Amino acid sequence: MNAKDCEYGVADNSYRAAGALLGITQLVDEFYRNMDAFSESKKIRDMHPGDLSESRQKLAYFLSGWLGGPKRYAEHYGSIKIPLAHKHLSIGVEESKAWLFCMKKTIDKQPYEEPFKIYLIAQLRVPAESIRMVSGT
Question: DSSP assignment of the chain, as one string?
């Protein structure tokens, strides 16, 4: 990547830094493996269905567009406002931290450049906090 390409959050730079849909799918798969593996995430894992197939696809498609790539979520499921989509769940500080913990462990294992890892976890804190705020717990 040249210097312009390293401007994460611009055009599709973040999407490409994440490895496009294949890389995002690997990220999502590892994320859900981590949710099953870590006791810290049991409560948030229990908020998901037993079969994670649709959850995996929805998260991968959402991240595709959120990272500046194709808007796959909207193409398949319609528009979404992430905080409102989670409003029915009881998400407090503990749950938000658990979600970010799993995501950080996941990002650490990805073959991303270190600056992108730092950028990505910082960006993911924004929707995590928005979801917590809307949940009202």
Answer: --TGGG-TTSTTHHHHHTTHHHHHHHHHHHHHHHHHH-GGGHHHHTTS-S--HHHHHHHHHHHHHHTTS--HHHHHH----HHHHTTTS---HHHHHHHHHHHHHHHHHS---HHHHHHHHHHHHHHHHHHHHHHT-
* pTM for the predicted model, two decimal places: 0.89
Q: Which residue type occupies 57? A: Q
Whole-angstrom distance, CA of residue 98 vs CA of residue 49: 18
Q: Hey, what domains does the chain have and what are their CATH numbers?
A: 19-135 (1.10.490.10)
User: Tell me: the pLDDT tens digits for 52-82?
Assistant: 999 999 999 999 999 999 999 999 998 888 7
Tokens for 79, please give them: 């528009």
